[in-house]
Amino acid sequence: MDSDRVRKLEARCIEEQPPACMATCPLHVDMRAILEKVKKGDFSGAFALYARMVPFPGIVGHICDHPCEATCRRQEAGGAIRIAAVERALVEESYATLRRTAQRQSKPKRVAVVGAGLAGLTAAFDLAMKGHRITVLEADAHPLERLYHDYDEDILPRSVIAAEIGALQTLGVEIRVRSRVAGGPGPLGLDTLIDDFDAVLLALGPGVARNFSSTVRLTDNGRIDIDPNSRATSHPKVFGGGFHGALGEVYSPIGSIRDGRRAAGSIDRFLQGASLTAKRDDADGEASCLYVNTAAQEAVPPVEPVDTAAGYTLEEAKAEAARCFPCHCQECVKACVFLAHYKTYPKRAVREIHNNLSIIMGNRKANRMIDSCSLCGLCETVCPTDLAMGDVCLEARREMVDSGHMPASHHDFALRDMEDSRSARAAFARHEPGRERSARVFFPGCQLTASAPGHVERVYAHLRDRLEGGVGLMVDCCGAPAHWSGRTALHTEVVDHLRQTWKEMGEPEIVTACATCLTMLRTHLSEAPVRSLWPLLAEIGWPEGTDARAAGKTLAIHDPCTGRHEREVHVAVRDLAARLGASVREISSAELTTCCGFGGLVSFANPDVANATVDARAAERPEDYLTYCAMCRDNFARRGKRSAHLLDLAFPPEDGADPAARPDPGFSGRRDNRARLKIRLLRNLWGEDMSDPESVWNVHIPDDVRADMERKLILVDEVTAVIADAETTGRKLKDRKTGHLIATLRSGPVTTWVEYENTETGALVHKAYGHRMNVEAKS
Amino acid sequence: MSVPVPPEVPVPDTDDLICARCDVPLRMGKVQASYMGQTFPVELPVCPSCGFVYVSEDLAAGRMLKVEQALEDK
Lengths: 779, 74
Known about the structure:
The complex is a heterodimer. Chain A folds into six domains: 82 residues, Alpha-helical ferredoxin (Fumarate Reductase Iron-sulfur Protein, Chain B, domain 2), CATH 1.10.1060.10; 162 residues, 3-Layer(bba) Sandwich (FAD/NAD(P)-binding domain), CATH 3.50.50; 76 residues, no CATH class; 121 residues, Rossmann fold, CATH 3.40.50; 110 residues; 73 residues. In chain A, 42% of the residues lie in helices and 12% in strands. Chain A has 34 helices and 20 strands. In chain A, helix 8 links the parallel strand 1 and strand 2. Chain B is α+β, with helices and mostly antiparallel strands. Chain B is built from two helices and four strands, in the order ββββαα. Chain B has a two-stranded antiparallel ribbon with strand order 1-2. Chain B has a two-stranded antiparallel ribbon with strand order 3-4. Chain B starts with 16 loop residues before the first strand and ends with a helix.
């Protein structure tokens, strides 16, 4: 993942885009953060954020023309936040806490500011804060003269103006009133100022400026020709600020402040000999592209102040601030347990993943995070820019495997399970009994064979019964675990083997019962025609006698995440359930389904995230769940959510047991089921005998120990092997107090320990555990 | 929803353990623990006669697991 690609991926995530209010504000005040603090009653914290951006918070808090409110996204749900009114309450509460200290400059420069309007004084403030010496020359009798005319005392108290001017003077700004600057030379001439000061700002206010035409270039309408972005004029030492730009410009206090700030930024750059334009971040923001799902918000009208003239009380300001959503995208985070678990969002996660992959020395702290994504595709489905975290995580896994940095323990068990499902114990392919050709081949997938082998036999019998041209059977694994774990070479090996088998079968159409197999085979065995079992079943119908077998049952349907875009399958499955008489409710739309926790092998790399994922899904509806993925069904069952596979409804247990209460067979049970299915099918359909590998050791494992072993990924076969070894060799410990025996055996990368006792009927297992580290006594 | 809870089996006291084959109590001894090409000397209960090393579940699921994971994330 090169840094160019990382940047492109990061750019796709819009979560860090500014909210609309901030993008619109000429000073880019972070109102979202401020309202968050006001909401919590933290007025001093909110005011500190406000005063960091606003030069004269007292004044602006009373008269800001608040362009932010016009773009506030709350207007789509009840009305824009009354930001200006909240600001007023905020500054009235906290202005007294304002403390400002200017930087120290070892060689301060002298700057003359002509005009004591908001633009000029903002520039004076910004440059004074940088440590420069500022002299403001004002023709009128007062600084900020205009404010006295434009605003009544009850809108903008005069005491506020006086306090702001006083604060500015405290910073060392000298303000000379009744000092009209003229053009050319002379004591208050522009040319003299240019000689006496390091830079000059003409913040003149409206009107023509023909007096200065001998020094700076004017526009056709007699105003100073100012570059709108840098505020530079034709004279390098002279800058222009304030309201004297294009004709038709509408006066805006906050706009004037923005102009003054931008001019001060340029003057500071000029004084340091830096470029006026390079890497400036104070340009007018474009409209924010932050996506906000306003449709999901309930409409709430603005808070009306009880006393309109006095404005909001603090309580009213808090209530109004609480109407701020606040604006965030986070569509994927809201939908994804994995991202929520890591308290991250794609832009940040992509960077963390890239950093993790780039580490030469030190800990790779994001390894487990990378392996905790279920690759379910929900994030890209809900993302406004279709950013797929699953693709990023999968790519990262492949790099980790290729560079030798994939933690072995994360996927080891799942890959060994895949190996078992592909081994001669479980996998095989045959033409339909008595036929030499297969027009189709049924590919049930390794999980249906493991979860409900009887269903595989029944469906296969039904397909043979209804379909012409020969229906072969191919019991194998599609290679998803290899793919999901980033083992590209192993996955290629699996697919090559499948291709070989498929060719030997005469290149039949593959009919699969598993959504993952469907996707995997379509993508990686693209030359083979592959289709889902369910639309085919909808065409040929259920076997006779299955009608209304699920009559009276109401279930909520969970679609597998790997088939979220398979519309034809979604329709077929619902139709098939209806034909069985079941009444089906939706949990979410099929496209927005979630993972059951198995996808991407999360349940092996991060059981906490996997369990949280399945639990969140299980809690969405109270009804029993209906699935058509064996793994989804077993995961719900494992976590105590009643759930039935569609085939459980069609072929309920003959003993009348409740199909939705079928327990999860567990990993050992799954392996047994696969092996026994092969033995049974070969014997019953093809007359072939396979030796049944019955263990000579009688091992009893109580249910609670078995569940604990499942959690620790320890198989019954492994426990049996430990006991067999101990009883054969005598290598074991004895606990004198309990009489329990303790034995161990290293098998592949794992050492398994078993605590047991021998009873008359065999070994009774009390506990099993394991570790990967190898220990040996020093000889 | 009910989720199974792990069984509660008391951890054996090392002093109570004897090697069944050699019929001698375990004693603390020097052991080499290795993983991913790294080797560490540790002290664990060992049969002084045949060298059978005992790793308790607490150790396997605690400190040992932490070291395994730390090495995997190097």
